[in-house]
Amino acid sequence: MKQILPLAVIVLLLSCKDQDATPTGPVNDTFDPSMAMLIKGGSLVGVGHTVNGTATIYEKSGMKTVLLDPFSSQNGPDLRVYLSKDDNAASFISLGKLKSTNGKQSYEVSGNPDVTDYKFVLVWCEEFKVLFGKAELK
Questions:
Q1: Which of 39, 40, 72 is nearest to 53 (CA)?
Q2: CA–centroid distance for 116 within its chain
């Protein structure tokens, strides 16, 4: 077992190719929270990875938007943003690929879900089914 673990770590590291990595250039989304109604928000914390910032949900003209601002995250392959009912992504809405590992970024919530049922914003590695970070929304 001790010999298999280092091999598994090497395979995992090699599988994270550059083309799988999330962009790292800073983004500055144009979403203006002063023109929308705040529904709820929370602080992002890393879970085994470095993730920092604030996640908030706003509503403007019936459209709900998740805003990450400020935001920074350790890089990883296939990082996604989820609006989730729990912190292990058992019941979630995928908001799309993480636009960058740092900077202000917004994600529209499709459909018209009752966002009060969703308690977390997650930064999730889809490829390896790993939670990078979470914000409990209050």
A1: 72
A2: 18
Sign of the CA dihedral 81, 83, 89, 93? negative
Considering the entire predicted model, what is its pTM? 0.86
Helix (H) or strand (E) holding 112: none
Contact 92, 134 (CB under 8 A): no
Please compute, for residue 101, the number of CA atoms within 13 A of its CA located in the half-sphere on the CB side. Answer: 17
Tokens of 114: 């009752």
Q: Which of 56, 89, 55 is nearest to 72 (CA)?
A: 55
pLDDT in tens, the chain (138 residues): 555 545 444 444 444 444 578 999 999 999 999 999 999 999 999 999 999 999 999 999 999 999 999 999 999 999 999 999 999 999 999 999 999 999 999 999 999 999 999 999 999 999 999 999 999 999
Count the neighbouring beta carbons within 10 Å of the beta carbon of residue 21: 14
Q: How far apart (Å, rounded) are the C-alpha atoms in residues 17 and 15?
A: 6
Q: Which domains does the chain have, with CATH numbers?
A: 4-136 (2.60.40)
CA-CA distance, 56 to 32, in Å (whole number)? 12
